[in-house]
Specification:
Order of helices and strands: EHHHEHH
Strand content: 5-15%
Radius of gyration: 12 Å
Oligomer: single chain
Number of domains: 1
Low-confidence stretches: 1-8
CATH architecture: Orthogonal Bundle
CATH topology: 434 Repressor (Amino-terminal Domain)
Mean pLDDT: 87
Largest sheet: 2 strands, antiparallel
CATH class: Mainly Alpha
Helix content: 40-55%
Number of strands: 2
Distance between the termini: 14 Å
Strand order of the largest sheet: 1-2
Shape: globular
CATH superfamily: lambda repressor-like DNA-binding domains
Length: about 90
Amino acid sequence: MPKNTAVNPTGVEIDGPKLRIRRKLSGQSMAAFAARCGVHVSYISHLERQPEPRRVSPEKFALICDALNIPSNQRHTMLTADAQKRAKAAA
């Protein structure tokens, strides 16, 4: 994972609506995607449905990005806009 992924002690802010869009564009059902990530389908559902940002562990973030085939140099696109701004400012 690149150094500037807006990781903090409480996790990575993932953008749920972006996650849903990317998952659907990849053609994966929620159940299949959850299985690829090694998490329960309700976890993915919770991430995708929440209007406010959700924090996930850096490890879960990497698993999610891997399941979506997102290269490490583009993983920042899965962060919330605020997290992207903070990462850019810290760089």
